[in-house]
Design goal:
62% of the residues lie in helices and 18% in strands. It has 6 helices and 5 strands. The chain has a 5-stranded mixed beta sheet with strand order 4-3-2-1-5. Helix 1 (53-61) packs across helix 3 (79-91) and helix 3 (79-91) packs antiparallel against helix 4 (96-147). The relative contact order is 0.07.
Length: 186
């Protein structure tokens, strides 16, 4: 029975979610499978991949052939490296402990790379939010300035100047009465 490691689609329209499975190559895409090896969610950035590495290596050793996409996912998670290292142990090139040490070092380096990408994406999204906030603030200030006519602003400025001038120079009661009379005539 020819076995393939491939993706089985789940999720709704426009929001795919995949199971990584080992299945008979003659079965339907979303049909019967032999073993579920993990999941793949491409809707988030970076894509979320959960995988049983040892199970995938077991199927690869038993002759399962991954599809192109499945091979890329397996390589990304280190399954292909682990299979390669297991072949080196079988040939006697190095010991099981050395192979595990190499694989763990590779996993740590990969984790650092992924964390760096997440940090870069978070910084970029924070910058976009800050820029959007600044642009919105500028638009709001412009709307406020457009809503108040310039004539009103000039009149308010003139009245403020008059009040300041009146407070600076004390008036007599007669001067105040004359100003009030002039204002009523106008």
């Amino acid at each position: 029975m020819p076995v393939k490691i491939r993706l089985q689609r789940h999720g709704k329209k426009g929001k795919p979610f995949y199971w990584i499975i080992a299945a008979d190559s003659r079965s339907k895409r979303d049909g019967k499978y032999l073993e579920k090896l993990g999941t793949y969610n491409p809707n988030v950035n970076p894509a979320e991949i959960n995988l049983d590495i040892d199970g995938a290596v077991k199927w690869l050793h038993n002759g399962a052939q991954p599809t192109d996409t499945a091979r890329a996912i397996l390589s990304y998670k280190g399954v292909m490296l682990k299979k390669h290292l297991a072949g080196g142990v079988k040939k006697g090139a190095f010991t099981e402990e050395q192979a595990e040490a190499k694989f763990n070092a590779w996993l740590e380096e990969k984790a650092k790379t992924i964390d760096g990408k997440r940090a870069k994406l978070n910084d970029a999204s924070d910058k976009v939010k800050a820029d959007a906030f600044a642009a919105e603030k500028a638009v709001n200030e412009q709307r406020i300035a457009d809503a108040t006519p310039e004539v009103v602003v000039e009149e308010v400025a003139e009245k403020v100047e008059e009040v300041v001038a009146e407070e600076a120079a004390p008036e007599t009661i007669e001067d105040a009465a004359e100003k009030a009379a002039e204002e009523t005539k106008e």
